[in-house]
Amino acid sequence: MTLEKLSLQTPLIDIKGVGPKFVERLKNLNIDTVKDLLWHFPFRYEDFSNISKIKDLKTGERATVNGVVKDVKMRRTWKKRMILLEAVVADETGTVKAIWFNQKFLITILKKGTTINLAGKVQEDKKGSMFSHPMFEILSKKTIERLKEGDIEEIISDLDYFKHTGRLVPIYPETARLTSKAIRYLIKGVFDNVEKIAETLPDEILKKRGFLEINDALKKIHFPDSLEEAKDAKKRFSFEDLFYLQMSNIRQKKKLAKQKAYVFAFDEKYAESLINRLPFELTGSQKKAIFEVLRDFEKGHPMNRLLQGDVGSGKTIVAIIAALIVARGNKPFDYAQGEQSAFMAPTEVLARQHYQTFKKFFTKFEKGVCLLTSSEAKIFYGDDMEVVLKKPELIKKISFGEIKIIIGTHSLIQKSVDFKDLAFVVIDEQHRFGVDQRAELVSRKFSGENKILPHFLSMSATPIPRTLSVTIFGDLELSIIDELPKNRKPIITKVVAPENRNKVYAFVRGQVKKGRQIFVVCPRIEIPQDEELEKKVVYKSMFSSWEDTRAVKDEYEKLSKKIFPDLNVDMLHGKMKAKEKAEAMKKFKDKKTDILVSTSVIEVGVDIPNATIMMIEGADKFGLAQLYQFRGRVGRGEHQSFCLLFTDSAAKTTYSRLESLVNAKSGFELAEMDLALRGPGQFLGQSQTGIPDLAMKAAQNPEMVKEARESAEEILNSDPELNNYLFLKNHLEQFEKDVHLE
Ligand code: ADP
Ligand code: MG
Question: At residue 37, does pLDDT exceed 90?
Fold first, then answer.
């Protein structure tokens, strides 16, 4: 490594001694610079601090021994498939065996006579104590010399002597051919050579909350002497991320509150008259959500609201009523009055569905509602008056303000589309869009010179626990629909024991005979190839192995050839071309397919009322919230529906986790459980939001969220422009760029 001090911005590739292959692998973990590396935090620690003589090793305990390699052998295992490396290590009290599978290269490293430390969980075989895949550390000359002078206990916590054994050892998210050991080695080297890092939290916060200073905290999160230390360090960084997130949210909110938006007077009678035209009674929470939106419309500042509700809870109608109010405008008797609304849906199918819903319920709407997707352009003027036209013509009409409600896909954010007076933007299944795409519709198309921003409503069927949405979407107002329309039949949900699989197949056959259709969901497409694994971040020992996980292609083969050769079985997965996917979906919708085997790609919002069974293979591989979503795809019609969960895991905890799906009353309840069990990543897709891992995890700690919010408020209230906190201001701007929130 170089002798010059490294800065946080130094790319790792510029460091002498760090090879390009290594850098390439680090990239798979999104690590490019010194900063990225130092902020690659361990997700757990292995405690190897118990130093033992070999004769004192106790089976089941974790320990480190220091000794000399006496013998090394390599052989193939009886199945001839794996290479087994066996080493015997001795100290003055005895010998211990260590084995490794498929680590051929070790033979060149663990030579006879080498002094090493071994660390791991002590096991035993017929001949005595042994380690399987222990951590090992070859002692440097310096260390061996030093050991001659005194006992190992005196130097074991000194990182200059030991990094991988004899202490608390950090375990990092890894990727193929990049182990925690290598990461640890690099972090230690970089840490020793990096310049002093400037503090990123204001002094007053450090003092008030008793947090560690940043350099100290970095050292302690990577190389703690005790778990206490590691915890303190982690707390500081979690708080920091949450604090910046809150700063960003609050500032965003304040900024928006200064902007102008269209004002629509709240006319309760009119709203009611619209609601009364519907053929069904709205649920209480639908009414409440409409009310909340209409109240925001009165304020003169842009609404920024997230509408959450289960699949089928009726979110669309909330948005439609609001759009009708916007289209009517404030001078109801002037036909030319009223402003525009845009609905953006993630797929053509969903956009078309919205358009049709609109046509169905508001047959008298004369001000023009249109559908604009890459394949369709048409306008509905009420009373069955529908015009199909060329896209440029439709786009022109939109720009003249001739159409008040514009429904579509990404097509709405093409450069050529301009609105005349866009007052209200609705984004359906908001998590399906990139942040940029959402921002595009809200900001670029605002109404000309007036600088009037549209009101913004995003809709999501992913129930996000409240603690989490307050953290992440702290700048949004929330409306929640937590009940389903009354006419829905509950879906019968069961965890199926493996021995009952054939009974289920018989039941499936019976349902198909009655004309029903079946979804089969599998956790993955096929056995992953090596290259793919390489791109994956691996949290060692956090997840069960993928080796025996059911794959769409295999399951499709099995069902179509062996189990149901006489039925129409089809498959759907993310690697198929868009056209093939649409075709598979259409065939299923048209009832040409009886059984559709798929990954989790089936469109969230798609309505197939004739599907009555949702079979989920490898159910333990999915989060509860996700399982809940799958289940929501059946039970949409008049027939009794079923959700059948299969798992190959015999673990009791798996069963009880799946049972909670059987018992849960709402998606929110499950989301809370999921948050507690598996952490928040899955609700939001970290990579999309860019929200720091720690902040996501910390969101599980509402107390800390509250403290971070308090601190952020204190500072912004005393100094809204952050003139006395220039460093903080710069850092915040950088954070916002990185995190990329709206
Ligand atoms: P989602 O919230 O998943 O977007 P939708 O808005 O697509 O749900 O609504 C699902 C279905 O339920 C639609 O056919 C819609 O017309 C219908 N629906 C909405 N609200 C009610 C209600 N209060 N009572 C009965 N049916 C309703
Ligand atoms: Mg929907």
Answer: yes
Closest ligand 1 atom to 632 CA: 3
Q: Which atom of ligand 1 is nearest to the CA of 360?
A: 16
The closest ligand to the CA of 314 turns out to be: 1
| Cα–Cα distance list, 349 to 260, 283, 454, 676 (Å) | 34, 26, 25, 35
Say how many Å lie between the CA of residue 406 and the centre of ligand 1.
20
What pLDDT shows up at residue 535?
Answer: 55
Separation of alpha carbons 340 and 264, rounded Å: 12
Low-confidence winner among 134-143, 313-322, 494-503, 670-679 (lowest mean pLDDT) = 670-679
Distance 608 CA to ligand 2 centre (A): 13
Q: How many separate helices (H) and strands (E) can be counted in the chain?
A: 27, 25
Burial degree of 385 (CB within 10 A; 0-12, 13-18, 19+): exposed
Q: Which residues line ligand 1 (CB under 6 A)?
A: 280-283, 286, 309, 311-317, 357, 461, 485, 487, 605
**What's the 366 CA to ligand 2 centre distance in angstroms?**
24
* Arithmetic mean of pLDDT over the chain: 85
For 2-17, what is the mean pLDDT?
83
Q: Where are the alpha helices (DSSP H) in 84-194?
A: 141-149, 152-155, 180-193
Q: Is 80 left (phi over 0), alpha (psi -120 to 50) or beta?
A: left
| For ligand 1, atom 26: residue with the closest CA | 485
Q: What is the position in ligand 1's atom list of the atom closest to the CA of 309?
A: 2
172, two tokens: 């990092």
Q: Domains of the chain (ranges plus CATH)?
A: 1-43+179-195 (no CATH), 45-171 (2.40.50.140), 268-481 (3.40.50.300), 492-665 (3.40.50.300)
User: Which atom of ligand 1 has the smallest separation from the CA of 286?
Assistant: 23
Distance separating the N- and C-terminal Cα atoms of the chain: 40
The Cα–Cα gap between 266 and 697 comes to: 41
Predicted pLDDT of residue 483: 85
